[in-house]
Specification:
Length: about 150
């Protein structure tokens, strides 16, 4: 699931619903209602509101192959030209190897977490990202080990 920070007032039920969806983005409304101790209609209306306002942007999966023995994990910092950030984000979201995308301050406009099946695949992803219209500079660091 992708969560977008927007200027909304979340009550405890909204926060609990978002937490439950982060745990299992595929949970049926009935299961969420049981977890939260409310009716299915309440969960559905809250979920509809979160989607309509953009607080929840969508749902996604976490595939087990993301952490295979040859998987290359990396962090990429991206500089975007002028007012093209929205278009760049839309294009980057279409690249499945980009696992997370964050806006940031400072020199870099965006930070992306990449995961590729091999070095050759990683090279292809780098070329694809750098070819997105509106990206003027990037810097990528391969993650070697977790400490």
């Amino acid at each position: 699931m992708v969560i977008n920070i927007v200027m909304l007032h979340f009550d405890d039920l909204d926060r609990e619903l978002i937490a439950a969806l982060r745990e299992d983005g595929r949970a049926p409304v009935s299961k969420l209602a049981d977890i939260l101790g409310v009716s299915r209609a309440t969960v559905q209306s809250r979920l509809d509101r979160l989607l309509d306002t953009g607080a929840v942007l969508g749902f996604t999966i976490r595939a087990s192959e993301e952490h295979g023995p040859n998987t290359v994990q990396a962090i990429m910092m991206v500089e975007v030209a002028g007012q093209s950030t929205t278009r760049v984000i839309r294009n980057l979201r279409g690249i499945p190897e980009l696992r997370q995308l964050h806006s940031t301050n400072g020199k870099w406009d965006l930070v992306a977490q990449l995961s590729a099946a091999s070095l050759a695949d990683f090279d292809r992803v780098l070329r694809e990202v750098r070819g997105v219209d509106g990206i003027i500079n990037s810097e990528t660091s391969i993650l070697l080990s977790s400490i």
